[in-house]
Amino acid sequence: DNVGHLLSRSILITGAAKALNASDALSPVLDNLDHSLNQAMTSIRSSVHDLHDESLNLKEAAESLTSDFTFCPVTLHYDMGFEVPREIKYCFISIVKEALSNVARHSNATLVQITMREHPALYQLCIEDNGTLTESNLETLLPNRGIGLSNMNDRLKVLNGNLQITIQKGVRLFITIPKEQEY
Asked: Considering the entire predicted model, what is its pTM?
């Protein structure tokens, strides 16, 4: 924060100096300084963004999503390492959000169970509810019907992941993403 504030202040001072400048000889120097300071600010923003992405804790994010869900109780079983790739973290968070939204909109479930597990060769996410489905709710789970499930499939395709949907005493989403590639 301090470096960002100092750079912002320097950019503003440079802008003021450029506005007050009457010397043609000093104009290129002030333009160059302004350009350099703005590049530094862009670099700082990028570094902070990267740090945020890497510092995202998947377990804490999942716990936050489950504790904020008020439709029915949710249990979370988390069995993953600390070095989960950023792309996997964001994929799992997005899928959990969408799945919980689907439960609230399309289910009469009284319990949801979420399991996140890391295996030697893959990452696994399983989301199960104990609700029953009506014929109209079943339509939303068919491939290419629901936007949410389509978004899940799109996210997984990029990571060579797989989504299996089972409907038996509730709905079960079983997701696997192989570890073999670099993310």
From this structure: 0.67
